[in-house]
Amino acid sequence: MSDNNVLIKVSGLKKHYNKSSVKALDGIDCEIKEGEVVVIIGPSGSGKSTFLRSLNLLEIPTEGSIVFDGIDITAPKANINKHRQKMGMVFQHFNLFPNMTILKNLTLAPMKLLGKSKEEAEKKARELLERVGLGDRADAYPGQLSGGQKQRVAIVRALCMEPEVMLFDEPTSALDPEMVGEVLDVMKQLASEGMTMVVVTHEMGFAREVGTRIVFMDGGVFVEENTPDEFFSNPQSPRAVDFLSKVL
Amino acid sequence: MIKQFGIWLGSMWAAFAKEFNFVFIEDNRYQHIVKGFGNTLKITAGALVVGIIIGIIVAAIRSSYDKNKEAMAMHKGLSYYVFTVANAICKVYLTIFRGTPIVVQLLIFYFIIFANAKNGVPVAIFAFGINSGAYVAEIFRGGIMSIDGGQFEAGRSLGFNYLQTMRYIIIPQMFKAVLPTLCNEFIALLKETSVAGYVGIIDLTKAGNVIAGRTFSYYMPLIAVAIIYLVMVLILTSLVGKLERRLRKSER
Questions:
Q1: Backbone dihedral region for residue A133 (phi beyond 0: left; psi -120 to 50: alpha; all else: beta)
Q2: Which tens digit of pLDDT belongs to each residue from A73-121?
Q3: What secondary structure does DSSP assign to B188-223, as a single string?
Q4: Cβ atoms within 10 A of the Cβ of B231, count?
């Protein structure tokens, strides 16, 4: 994995609501390098999800810029649809398309957006499904799957677009406890293959084991950034100490 | 007893046949019904198509304005002003056509706006279509809003633009959700066309009325007309029911 290649550069990112009375993000600067697994943790309402969703402009920032692959995607002329194709996103509530089979869920975007043939798209989809252990469910509908299976399909759906970075928005928060493991395993596998990942999660075990960098957010800013070992054994800010004492 | 009943039934049948013969067969009066039925079908089908097209356009403008106004307001580009004006026009349209009776609208179209029209049927298609479009637009908009926002975000996050997300992801789901309500609107439309006689069109209802006027026999033509409407509605309902069952496949 080639490091030191900055994939995403965020500068002065702000997101304000209601004429600046609510500051969800209040000035964030950060760099995400290729192959990094950045895990964002923090109390609810701290702006974790808003930050993640800003990265592919599902939230439109009030101020600041995001440079992805050397291109400022917050510029008015940027073609955000093109850039989103390279940023896979996984949601808390899966958001699979309920009216389509799993295979159709996986092949829709590659066929319509990447111009792949049906055979090509299906081959890739089946291959990836096989890898997450769902090779036999290609013709099922999302309603017939368990939560953990749905989330694995959602990850595969994003991967089918061959993204350069994967964004995870609390991917295990809506799952039964016994299904969390199967989803985290897929994410671990992805990380070990060198995928650049930004993960918002409450799974501290995962953060510690897989993360290359931990970001602790509170009040719409990055309070603390460190390697997992340093962060968990020796948190610097009082807010992080307090948070860790509650969740660990 | 049974024999008496048989005789009574026989005389009833004979009276019915005589009346039927007089009302529908003599002077080929059934032709009125055929013609009226044809016009009712033409007006309903035409208005349906016009209504759906208008409905989709208006619903798309209204819901994309609602969904994107925050983003558009930030850049204040041309699209912001275009959408603001288009949205306002749509609102005025909805207010006027849902706020006034269809008969009045039909009279205004026929006697004022298209005063030179020779044939009333195209005017009726236009009038009923525009009227129905207002209702269909709100049905579609409700359907679009009922789809979980996550579906929209999932589409956008994969790289689909707004229109592609609508077309590939939202509209197919929306259509399934609104089908029963839409069917209701079509039934209402079919029956509403019975006021077309106000502007001199021989539709099914008018045809029944014409025959009744010529024969001074009311019950048979009017009951026949009612039965034809009922059968049309039943056929429509069963077709929609079939479609619904096919679309529900994914919910086993």
A1: left
A2: 998 888 899 999 999 999 999 999 999 999 999 999 999 999 999 999 9
A3: HHHHHGGGGGGGT---HHHHHHHHHHHHS--HHHHH
A4: 10
Does B50 have pLDDT greater than 90? yes
Nearest-CA distance from B74 to chain A in Å?
A: 8
Predicted ipTM of the assembly: 0.90
Q: What is the DSSP string of A81-133?
A: HHHHTTEEEE-TT----TTS-HHHHHHHHHHHHS---HHHHHHHHHHHHHHTT
User: Which chain B residues touch A56 with a CB distance below 8 Å?
Assistant: 157
Size of chain B, expressed as the number of residues it contains: 252
Contact A84 B154 (CB under 8 A): no
At position A138, the amino acid (one-letter code) is: A
Measured distance between the N- and C-terminal CA atoms of chain B, rounded to whole angstroms: 57
The three-class DSSP label of residue A166 is strand
Among A97, A144, A157, A165, which would you mutate to test the B interface (most chain B Cβ atoms within 10 Å of its Cβ)? A97
Report pLDDT for B82.
87
Residue contact B154–A99, C-beta within 8 A: no
pLDDT at B52: 93
Confidence label for B229 from pLDDT (cuts 50, 70 and 90): very high
Nearest CA in chain A to B163: A81
Q: Which residues of B touch A (CB under 8 A)?
A: 70-71, 74-75, 77, 148, 150-151, 153-154, 156-161, 164, 168-169, 172-173, 176, 247, 250-252
Q: What is the mean pLDDT of residues B115-135?
A: 92
Question: Residue written as tokens 């649809």?
Answer: A81
Spatial distance between the Cα atoms of B250 and A99, rounded to a whole number of angstroms: 6
Taking an 8 Å cut-off on Cβ atoms, the answer to whether A143 and B251 are in contact is yes
Q: What is the SS3 assignment for A188?
A: helix
Cα-trace Rg, chain B? 24
- Domains of chain B listed by start with CATH number: 40-196 (1.10.3720.10)
